[in-house]
Amino acid sequence: MRFRHPDGTTVHLAYCTNVHPAETLDGVLAQLRDHCEPVRRRLGRDRLGIGLWLAKDAAHALDTDPAALRGLRAALDRRGLEVVTLNGFPYEGFGAEQVKYRVYRPDWADLERLEHTTALARVLTGLLPDDLTEGSVSTLPLGWRTTWTDDRADAAHAALLTLAERLDALADLTGRSVRVGLEPEPGCVVETTGDALAPLTAVGHPRIGVCVDTCHLATSFEDPHTALDALAAARVPVVKSQLSAALHAEHPRLPAVREALAAFDEPRFLHQTRTVGDTGRLHGTDDLGQALTGDALPDTSPWRAHFHVPLHAAPAAPLTSTLPVLKDALTRLVGGPHPLTRHLEVETYTWQALPPALRPRGRAQLADGIAAELALARDLLTDLGLKELP
Question: Which of 159, 266, 311, 323 has the highest Cβ tally under 10 A?
Fold first, then answer.
């Protein structure tokens, strides 16, 4: 979906396909048929943007076989779909029964991460619509904090410098510019936008920036305006933003609230949980179950958990979502005189991890839910003065 900002800039809205497990190119093609095109039809659009997640094997097939890449591009065109952004965070196995910490491997100290991200950038130049020359890729925020060392930090810095050189060469070769954004996430080396400033200013390259995920932003209790002002002051570009909402519990001390939270403690994904203590210090656990055990977290202030809940359907009381944080962030991202980013992506990958009563039953209900999220995002953009384009 495309929108015209009042300054004339085109802003793109997509939804991320990491909600649909697929490890191979055949699986990706099936996604387009079974999920993406039905969502487009529900929205009554001739064209729908999707943020493709390409696992290692699918990316390799597209990067090494020009015919396969042309075939995917033709399938996108045939189904009324377009791609301007890729999700390069998960490497493989995102549809496994248990993902948890595996999603952070390989990290940016490992050569595999650099090679995979380079391959994604090359593939994206072949998928961009004919009238566009700019694409984006979101990626892991360096690595998980507990395995990080000075040596690994040095290796990651060198890898990002190499990536920047490769992106420059790719632009010279293809005439198409791809930017890569580290996606701050709780528990990682780069947990907040503030944590991103030092490594990204050290790289100091306009093609390497930040992907602002509004669920992660909210989980870490970051103020959107303060965070985005700091990025702007440091001249760190917002390559893209993922529109998502976290789980919010206003009164975690109450037994009814604990019981409601426990329904979201599931074995597949990691649900980092955070709260701000009485002294203003951020406290956290790696997973929601850990927070619910004993006194692992202070419970006199609200808790937020890294659980991407549907944008249009906040959990029932006594829980809610951080949709207000998303709205504040979007106001700053695209509501000003000029947009801070041109690529927006709805990313609720946890539909099938919701408590059983809230999960969609079958493809049709999932498509209904994704379409409803996109409709909400569309309305937020038009309320900010952007005009939906055909």
Answer: 311
pLDDT in tens, 27-50: 999 999 999 999 999 999 999 999
Nearest Cα to 121, choosing from 169, 73, 70? 169
- Owner of token pair 């906040």: 314
Q: What pLDDT does residue 21 have?
A: 86
Question: pLDDT, tens digit, for every residue of 59-110?
Answer: 999 999 999 999 999 999 999 999 999 999 999 999 999 999 999 999 999 9
Strands (E), 60-167: 81-87, 134-139
**What is the C-alpha separation between 333 and 212, in angstroms, rounded?**
10
Q: Are 273 and 305 in contact (CB under 8 A)?
A: yes
- 279 pLDDT above the threshold of 90: no
Backbone angles phi, psi at 296, to 5 degrees: -60, -30
Give whole-number Cα distances, 330 to 52, 228, 235, 243, 292, in Å: 22, 11, 19, 8, 31
What is the rounded CA–CA span in Å between residue 268 and residue 104?
A: 14
Distance CA 360, CA 354 (A): 9
335 to 31, 192, 228, 380: CA distances (angstroms): 33, 22, 13, 10
pTM here is 0.97
Token digits of residue 2: 């495309």
